[in-house]
Amino acid sequence: MRRFARTLTAFALATTVVAGTAGWASGTTQRAVTGPPPGSAAWRADGVLGRELPDPGRARPARVHHFFRGLTAAEQRKLVERHPSVVGNLDGAPLELRYRANARALQASQDPRYAGLARPGRQILAFDPRGRGQVAEVFGDLRSARHVSVVVPGSDIDAGTFDRRNDVYGTPAGMAKSLYAETGQGNAVIAWAGYTTPVGLGLDAATGGLAEAGAGRLTRFTAGLAADGLPAPTVFCHSYGSVVCGLAASGIGATDLVVLGSPGMRADDVAGLRTGARVWAAKDDTDWIDDVPHVEVAGLGHGADPADEEFGARRVPAEDAEGHTGYFAPGTDSLRAFAAIAEGVSR
Asked: Which of 28, 167, 196, 315 has the least CB density, counted as fewest CB within 10 Å?
């Protein structure tokens, strides 16, 4: 009877996530963009090199990297020119080629949402215009970096809001820029908006469907970094992004996993994440996420609060942070701690 009562109570709490009575608002349902990059059919059919090209939907990043290593510079250039949308999003392809390919794809785009991303000097590591658009940008010299960080954002982020001017530190570009500025030389930070995020904080944000799709994309993305010879990353996961990271934790090869403003990671504790990474959690007292029930019942909610002592994560100080998007604000104790983790000082 007690177990039934607890389950009923938890279900009632989880229902408030959708009803909006615990600080959540309504949102629209999204369809996750998955599968190989746009233009993959033309890529598969192209015999320009006189050999079969690796299937973007099936070839593992290590296989992709091996393929590109066997090409001449002229052959690589030809593929970038003929298939920029594939090369630019092909995990395992050399990052220098991906920069060039995405710059080419962005310059050819007629969508005004992407005009800023096409500015010279930006290092765009992924650009997929399908749906609301997905993008990843690098800050720093990724090829020579000793330490690499990846920032995974939460709801309401896409290619159009990737680096919006309002609520800067709630955007992946703003968070990544701030972290990069706080870290020393030898660091690089990737702002990764590579999955379909919830819009608003309704049913999509309260369930794990988009996070599951995002976890697969994040796993493949980090496998591509590893295949290209880059250091194992520290991964920072904000809000719904921490649900993505929780589901991907066992497969992304991170040295450290840092969650902030988390609604839960779909795990009861650190052991449930099945990762060898050090797990850190930050939550400030003014963050509205604290009003969200940390339960998971009938697919609603995302489970235990990573910032609770019982979860077993290392606590990141966040007394100076304000609200749900203040963790990367300059001068905060949370940002200083994030930089120390990114640089390996706190290990």
From this structure: 28
